[in-house]
Amino acid sequence: MNVRLLAAGLVGAACGAVAVLALSGPSTTASGEVGAATTAEPEPTTTPAPTTAPDPRLDEDEDDVLLVWASSGLPDRAAARLASVPDILEVTTVAGHELELLAPVRAAIATDGRLGDGWVVPIDVLAIDPRSYSSVVPDGAAADLATLAPGSAALGETSAMLRGVGIGDVIELTSGLVEVAMIVPDRAVAGAELVVHHDDAERLGVVVDRFLLVAHDGDRREVQRAIDRALGLAAPVRFRTPAETTWLRHGDAVLPLAMVKDRFGEFAYRPGQGISITIDPAWEAAHLVEAAVPILGDVRCHRDLVPILDAALSALERDGLAHLVTLEQFAGCHVARRIGPDQALSRHSWGIAVDLNVDDNPRGSFSTQDPRLVETMREHGFGWGGAWLVPDPAHYELVAATPTASGPEPREPSG
Fold it and tell me: Of 347, 388, 154, which is closest to residue 251 (Cα–Cα)?
């Protein structure tokens, strides 16, 4: 069978409503993004529910492309370690990092589409080997991606829309320049904003191998066991197929950054002390609100999150479950910061996540969250950090690509 045909399950809608109780990225922390490794729960032995409807062209047993990643990151020469694993047809290694964009941007503080005076825009960048990567993406994008050359870049369709760019335009990062060579479907580049040739990875600062994509023609369970042995990691290794996750990439439990920006807006920021950042005040004024919601009282969140959070908390009250949320253990919604030093921005920076019952649900450890709370939040579009490889059981982050619940307009804060 042609290896490209094995990846038919990658084709589908760019994004859809996501119902998640699992998945995350390597070294996942407070917001499901890539960060420093901590302790992790054992890999579940059962396959979780899909995070999106399987592609109709995908047979029930079609699991011949595997996403492979681990909470500790990949070992050196990970792809080479799989060379002797039977039934593997192709392996590609993908590096990734959140870089800083200078131009083109549409921030209110930009001049002629370019930022200055220390302001930058976060941008999600992957680095690929065009030959092997193009072997495990849909045929419609494979031919283009196979031609990606050093110095050039591929943009996902959402990213191109956000940038307002076309083929031949130049993307300016704080670490260097690349020229847009192609615009491809979001799923073909795992939702990334910018994809570059692996020869440019060191120059640009995309040096951490994040995940593998593996095409095989063997029994899935046996292939997974063999991969696990070959990688030799102490941390759990997680495997996903196109039927089980929308985004075949690290951090697949949460929306890729391009989708976050498309729905909630893109901002410029300045690095601050430690992990803190300063966000463009014009963006904050346009997108953040203070409002009163059930149970929690006054919150400061993204204006689009407030009615959804209101609906979820109202449902808890209606069902007599308000006691499942302890007000004194609410750790906030909007917090402008990175996940950790030299790590990606937290999704709290957008105000699209809430931390509930934090004292009783320590990050990287056990959960005491009531399953009824988790399920109610899930029904309203929130993913739960307690099911990540590095669990963050107090964390609930909006992961639905489109609203899954309606609610009242934000109420004025009390007091």
Answer: 388
- Alpha-carbon distance of 170 to 186, in angstroms, equals 20
- Please report, as a single letter, which amino acid is at residue 45: T
Question: DSSP per residue over 52-103, as a string?
Answer: SPPPTTS-TT---EEEEEETT-PPTTHHHHTTTSTTEEEEEEEEEEEEEEEE
The closest of 55, 189, 48, 215 to 123, measured between CA atoms, is 189
* Beta carbons within 8 Å of 397's beta carbon, 6+ residues apart: 31, 32, 254, 347, 352, 353, 382, 383, 385
Whether residue 321 contacts residue 357, with contact meaning beta carbons closer than 8 Å, is answered with no
The one-letter code for the residue type at 157 is: E
Closest CA to 193 of 270, 274, 255: 255
Residue environment code for 51-66, b if the CB has 16+ CB neighbours within 10 A, otherwise e = bbebbeebeeebbbbb
Burial class (CB in 10 A: 0-12, 13-18, 19+), 20: buried
The owner of tokens 């130049």 is 170
- What is the reported pTM? 0.83
Pairing, β 176-184 against β 194-197: unpaired
Per-residue tokens: 181: 């060579």
Q: pLDDT for 288-325, tens place per residue?
A: 999 999 999 999 999 999 999 999 999 999 999 999 99
* DSSP classification of residue 211: E
Q: What are phi and psi of 137, to 5 degrees?
A: -120, 165
